[in-house]
Design brief:
Layout (H helix, E strand, L loop, with lengths): L2 H36 L4 H5 L30
């Protein structure tokens, strides 16, 4: 394989990588926009997280607790 062929394959690979990363980035932007508009998430709350980071501040989201056997493991010897 000659150097020219390797450089050409490298250029095609680089182009495909850039296009796929751009598509992924725009898909992620669309996902954020859609979830903000439908009301599933409020990303302005998360923007304030860096400012309100003490232990006494309000919790952003509460995680529902699940009482199952996986969370309560007993260690036996």
């Amino acid at each position: 394989m000659s150097i020219e062929t390797m450089r050409e394959l490298q250029a095609y690979g680089y182009f495909i990588l850039i296009v796929s990363l751009s598509i992924g980035l725009y898909a992620y932007y669309y996902h954020l926009y859609k979830s903000e508009k439908t009301g599933r998430r409020n990303y302005e709350k998360y923007g304030k997280l860096a400012l309100d980071d003490s232990l006494e501040d309000e919790v952003l989201e509460s995680v529902p607790s699940q009482d199952n056997d996986n969370t309560k493991k007993e260690f036996r010897k």
